[in-house]
From TrEMBL:
This is DNA topoisomerase 1. Belongs to the type IB topoisomerase family. Keywords: Coiled coil, DNA-binding, Isomerase, Topoisomerase. Residues 529-563 form a coiled coil. Residues 1-23, 40-110, 131-149 have a biased composition (Basic and acidic residues). The gene is Top1.
Length: 566
DNA sequence: ACCTTAACTTAGTATCGTAGCC
DNA sequence: GGCTACGATACTAAGTTAAGGT
C-alpha cells in the first residue's frame, strides 16, 4: 500500500471488505491476469533458465568465504539456515556449471548476473509459474484469506489436540462402518465424514456442474538438463552420443529400467515408437532395435542421484526459508543489487505488516508527548551527543508546525530522494537554532554538523523510548494524525457526497504536502487542460448567446404585451 | 566505529481496463 | 465504434532499517 496517509486503520479494513465484496468480478479479472502472467512467467522462466548459468564464480567464492567465517564464530540458527540455502544454491550452481562451459560463455553475454533463486522444493520437479504462493494473490477468496490470516502462532498444543480429535473420529468411523446408514448410527457416521457434508454444501441446480473455475497456474517441467559427458549410452555395444531430445526421452526409459514394465513387449513397442519421434534422422537410421540399446550407465547415474538425495539431511531437503517473504531473488547486473519478487500489497503477508505499521504509530501517539518533552529537555543537556541526538530527533519529528515570528529560520538545501533538490526555509525554536550554531562552531563547511551522532546511536535511543520505534514511525504518525485533524476540520456531517470527497481530497493534499510528495504533471495534462478550457469557452459562448436571446425575447414580449393591452 | 548488505518499504511513472460520451 | 478520462494496477528505483562484516 502506498502513501502513509492514504491508509489509516479504517481504510485498511475497508480495503479488505472491498476485496471481499468484489470477489467475483475480481476473480474473473484475476484469472485473466494470471493467464497473461503465466505466459509471461513461462517466457521469463525460459529466459531465467537460459541465463541461469551466467552465475559468477565471484559470488560463489563470496559464499564460501562467508561460510568460513560464520562457522568459525558459531552463527545463529537463522544464519545456519541461510548457509544451507547457500550450500544448496552452490550445489545447484555447480551442477549447472557442469553442464558446459560453452553455454556459460554464451550466457554471460546476456543480462542476468545471477541465477534467480526460486523458493521451491528440490523434490518438486515442476517449475511453478507463477510461483507456489500466488504472485498475485490479490483477490483470493475471503475464506481462504481468513484461514491464513489468523495464526501468528500456531500452537503445537492445538495441533496435538486436533490430531487427537481426528484420530478419535477415525476410530468412531471405523467402528460404525457396516452399520445401517438409515439409523441414528448412520447419521452419526455421515456427520463424521466431512467429505459428504462438503458435497451437500456444494450441490448445484440440476445440470449445473460448476459455478466458477480458478486457475492456479500450470506446472511446467524444468528444461531438460543434459547428462554429464561421463554418462554414456551404448548402441550395439558402441558408445553413441544422443541428441538432447533423444537423450531426454531415453532417460525416461533408463529411469524405469528396474521396473517390470520394461520387459513387457507392448510397453517396449510403445516406448520405442514414441522415442523415435524425437530422434534425428541419423539416430533413426542407427537405432532400429530397442534390445540393442544399453541404458545401464544412465540408470546407474539416476540411481546414484536419488541415493544422494536420500542422504541429504532433513534440513537440506527443506529448501524454503520461512524467515523471508520473497518468492524469487536475483542479482541485478548493473549495480549488482538484489532484486526480489514479492507478494502483492493485498496479500496477507503485506497487509498484516502494513496494519502493524499503523499499530506502531498508534503506540507512538501514547508516548509522543513524553518523547517531545524529553528531547526539549535534552536540548539543554551538558553532553554534546545528547544535544545532537535531541536536535536530530526534533527534525525527524517536526512537521511544519507554525511558530510565532520567523526569527529563527533554518535553510535546508540538499539532494533528496531521486537527487531532487530539497530546498526549504524552516522556522525552528530558539534552542534548536542556538544548538545548531553551537554544532557549527570550529567546523569547516565539509565537516559533519552532527559529528557526535550516527544512526546506531539514534536508533538505539529510539528503541529505548519505545519498542519498535524508528524514524519512519514519526512520519507515519504525523501523516496519520494530520489526516485525522484535517478531516475533522474540513468535513461537516450533513455535507453531500461530492462535498465530502472534496474535503477528503483536501485533507489528503495537506498530508501530501507534509510528506513532500512530488509528482510530475502527466504527459497528457496540458492537452486535457486545453480540452477543458475549450469546453469552458464553449459554455461561456453558449451562455452569452442564451443571455442575448433572453434579452431580445423579453423585449419582444414587452412589445407583444403592449400590443395586446392595446 | 564504520561500512556493507539483505530484506523490506515507499512513492513515483507507466499501463490497463472500462464507463461515458459523441 | 472510437475517443477520452480516470481509477486501478503493474512495475521499479530509491529509500530505510537491522544485522553482519572489517
Amino acid at each position: 500500500m502506498s502513501g502513509d496517509h492514504l491508509h489509516n486503520d479504517s481504510q485498511i479494513e475497508a480495503d479488505f471488505r472491498l476485496n471481499d465484496s468484489h470477489k467475483h468480478k475480481d476473480k474473473h479479472k484475476d484469472r485473466e491476469h494470471r493467464h497473461k502472467e503465466h505466459k509471461k512467467d513461462k517466457d521469463k522462466d525460459r529466459e531465467k533458465s537460459k541465463h541461469s548459468n551466467s552465475e559468477h564464480k565471484d559470488s560463489e567464492k563470496k559464499h564460501k568465504e562467508k561460510e568460513k567465517t560464520k562457522h568459525k564464530d558459531g552463527s545463529s540458527e537463522k544464519h545456519k539456515d541461510k548457509h544451507k540455502d547457500r550450500d544448496k544454491e552452490r550445489r545447484k550452481e555447480e551442477k549447472i556449471r557442469a553442464a558446459g562451459d560453452a553455454k556459460i560463455k554464451k550466457e554471460k553475454e546476456n543480462g542476468f548476473s545471477s541465477p534467480p533463486r526460486i523458493k521451491d522444493e528440490p523434490e518438486d520437479d515442476g517449475y511453478f509459474a507463477p510461483p507456489k504462493e500466488d504472485i498475485k494473490p490479490l483477490k483470493r477468496l475471503r475464506d481462504e484469506d481468513d484461514a491464513d490470516y489468523k495464526p501468528k502462532k500456531i500452537k503445537t498444543e492445538d495441533i496435538k489436540k486436533e490430531k487427537k480429535r481426528k484420530s478419535e473420529e477415525e476410530e468412531v468411523i471405523w467402528n460404525l462402518i457396516g452399520e445401517d446408514l438409515f439409523t441414528k448410527q448412520g447419521d452419526h457416521l455421515m456427520s463424521l465424514c466431512h467429505v459428504f457434508e462438503r458435497w451437500e454444501e456444494e450441490r448445484y441446480p440440476e445440470g449445473i456442474k460448476w459455478k466458477f473455475l480458478e486457475h492456479k497456474g500450470p506446472v511446467f517441467a524444468p528444461p531438460y538438463e543434459p547428462l554429464p559427458e561421463s554418462v554414456k549410452f551404448y548402441y550395439d555395444g558402441k558408445v553413441m552420443k544422443l541428441s538432447p531430445k533423444a537423450e531426454e526421452v531415453a532417460t525416461f526409459f533408463a529411469k524405469m529400467l528396474d521396473h517390470e514394465y520394461t520387459t513387457k513387449e507392448i510397453f517396449r513397442k510403445n516406448f520405442f515408437k514414441d522415442w523415435r519421434k524425437e530422434m534425428t534422422n541419423d539416430e533413426k537410421n542407427t537405432i532400429t532395435n530397442l534390445s540393442k540399446c544399453d541404458f545401464t550407465q544412465m540408470s546407474q547415474y539416476f540411481k546414484a542421484q536419488s541415493e544422494a538425495r536420500k542422504q541429504m539431511s532433513k534440513e537440506e531437503k527443506l529448501v524454503h526459508d520461512n524467515k523471508v517473504t520473497w518468492l524469487v531473488s536475483w542479482t541485478e547486473n548493473i549495480q549488482g543489487s538484489i532484486k526480489y519478487i514479492m507478494l502483492n500489497p493485498s496479500s496477507r503477508i503485506k497487509g498484516e505488516k502494513d496494519w502493524q505499521k499503523y499499530e506502531t504509530a498508534r503506540r507512538l501517539k501514547k508516548c509522543v508527548d513524553k518523547i517531545r518533552n524529553q528531547y526539549r529537555e535534552d536540548w539543554k543537556s551538558k553532553e554534546m551527543k545528547v544535544r545532537q541526538r535531541a536536535v536530530a530527533l526534533y527534525f525527524i519529528d517536526k512537521v511544519g508546525t507554525e511558530l510565532d515570528g520567523q526569527e529563527y529560520v533554518v535553510e535546508f538545501d540538499f539532494p533528496g530522494k531521486d537527487s531532487i533538490r530539497y530546498y526549504n526555509k524552516v522556522p525552528v525554536e530558539k534552542r534548536v537554532f542556538k544548538n545548531l550554531q553551537l554544532f557549527m562552531e570550529n567546523k569547516q563547511p565539509e565537516d559533519d554538523l552532527f559529528d557526535r551522532l550516527n544512526t546506531g546511536i539514534l536508533n538505539k535511543h529510539l528503541q529505548d523510548l519505545m519498542e519498535g520505534l524508528t524514524a519512519k514511525v514519526f512520519r507515519t504518525y504525523n501523516a496519520s494524525i494530520t489526516l485525522q485533524q484535517q478531516l475533522k476540520e474540513l468535513t461537516a456531517p450533513d455535507e453531500n457526497v461530492p462535498a465530502k470527497i472534496l474535503s477528503y481530497n483536501r485533507a489528503n493534499r495537506a498530508v501530501a504536502i507534509l510528506c513532500n510528495h512530488q509528482r510530475a504533471p502527466p504527459k497528457t495534462f496540458e492537452k486535457s487542460m486545453m480540452n477543458l478550457q475549450s469546453k469552458i469557452d464553449a459554455k461561456k459562448d453558449q451562455l452569452a448567446d442564451a443571455r442575448r436571446d433572453l434579452k431580445s425575447a423579453k423585449a419582444d414580449a414587452k412589445v407583444m404585451k403592449d400590443a395586446k393591452t392595446k
